[in-house]
Write a structure and sequence with these properties.
Layout (H helix, E strand, L loop, with lengths): L1 H21 L2 E7 L4 E3 L3 E10 L3 E3 L1 E7 L5 E8 L8 E6 L2 E7 L5 E3 L4 E11 L6 E13 L5 E7 L1 E7 L8 E6 L14 E6 L8 E5 L5 E4 L10 E9 L6 E10 L6 H40 L9 H46 L1
Parallel strand pairs: 1-12, 2-13, 15-19
Antiparallel strand pairs: 1-3, 3-10, 4-9, 5-8, 5-11, 6-10, 7-8, 11-12, 11-13, 14-16, 17-18, 18-19
Length: 356
């Protein structure tokens, strides 16, 4: 009897030693991309497995614990080698039970391979209390494709802080240009600036640095419009959330093209040329009028004896006519005056006769 008991104990010890030597083990870890989350954020909790030898994982059951007053469970995200149909889950308050069973999509590991088993999707509630919270996973068994139990160790806690979301920073730390100085001087909270450049400057480079190193800066243009006009350069700062934006504006006034000395001399000469042309045309018109006067004078034989100049002849004729008109009007006026005087005298005489 003692021999049988001893033999059984020996077989058990040998079996345990063999199992310990040849057992296949998996290290499981629960991981979060960030140790900080904000209200309304969506987070992924990743469960990774590391194999110490070549093996397959075809089945397991896990329990997930979380604070439902802060987090809302939204679903399971399978790994690249599994599908949603391989997973079944049940949610009861703060406890999520997951069963994975795969026939065709089991996960194959080589020694020291690190692979994602699955991920859990959560939303942070909009009224979640600020502070620390965690997601914990407990596995109660893993099996390979041949239904052999696998040994495992797990780091089962993923802890993070829920914090108030910071206001996105869209401001600039510095702003300068390749020519001249901006007016007014740069400050992060002033978004409108002015710059005047000479006509020779047709391009302006803009240098802008954001306060937030994760923000992006975009400048819409660098070429300036023609001289005598204004060009608006817009700098767009996009915050790290990719939604919030701030716009800075630089109005660049480009001076008109200066007038060259040759242009000035040509412009100063142009009035004299115009006056000379006018004098030439007036001279030609005078010559034409003189010719016409000469021809008409020849036809009427009205030349004066003491002048052979047609222009003088015309002037003398005009003066003679004016003198004749004035003399005639004077004679008429004198005649009227005499008439009224005679008429008055005759009336007086007739009145005196009647009185007598």
């Amino acid at each position: 009897m003692k021999r049988l008991i001893n033999l059984a104990i020996l077989i058990f010890i040998l079996f345990t030693i063999i199992q310990t030597v040849y057992a296949k083990n998996v290290n499981l870890t629960v991981n979060l991309p960030s140790d900080t989350a904000y209200r309304s954020d969506q987070i992924l909790v990743d469960i990774f497995a590391t194999a110490d030898s070549e093996l397959t994982i075809a089945a397991y059951r896990t329990f997930v614990y979380f604070d439902s007053s802060k987090l809302e469970f939204k679903g399971i995200v399978p790994s690249n080698t599994s599908s949603k149909s391989d997973f079944k889950y049940h949610l009861d308050g703060d406890t999520l039970t997951i069963i994975y069973l795969s026939i065709n999509n089991f996960q194959h590991f080589y020694a020291n391979d690190v692979k994602n088993l699955f991920s859990l999707k959560f939303n942070v509630l909009t009224d979640a209390d600020f502070g620390s919270t965690s997601v914990r996973c407990d596995f109660d068994g893993l099996s390979d494709y041949d239904v052999n139990a696998l040994g495992f160790q797990i780091e089962n806690n993923a802890t993070f802080n829920i914090e108030e979301k910071p206001i996105p920073d869209c401001s600039l730390k510095s702003l300068s240009v390749s020519y001249g100085s901006l007016y007014p001087d740069f400050t992060p909270y002033n978004t409108e600036y002015f710059l005047t450049v000479p006509y020779e400057i047709n391009k302006i480079e803009t240098y802008a640095e954001p306060n937030d190193p994760n923000a992006t800066v975009k400048v819409n243009r660098k070429n300036l419009r023609k001289g005598g006009t204004s060009t608006i350069i817009t700098i767009t700062v996009t915050a790290s959330d990719k939604k919030s934006k701030e716009y800075y504006k630089i109005t660049v006034d480009r001076e008109e093209k200066p007038v060259s000395s040759s242009s000035r001399s040509s412009s100063s000469k142009s009035p004299s040329s115009k006056s000379s042309s006018k004098s030439t045309s007036s001279k030609s018109a005078t010559h034409t009028n003189i010719k016409n006067s000469i021809s008409s004078s020849n036809d009427n034989n009205t030349y004066l004896d003491d002048s052979r100049s047609p222009s003088k002849n015309v002037i003398i004729k005009e003066n003679t006519f004016d003198t004749f008109v004035i003399t005639l009007l004077s004679i008429l006026a004198l005649g009227l005056i005499c008439y009224f005087i005679i008429l008055r005298v005759s009336k007086q005489k007739s009145n005196q006769k009647h009185k007598k």
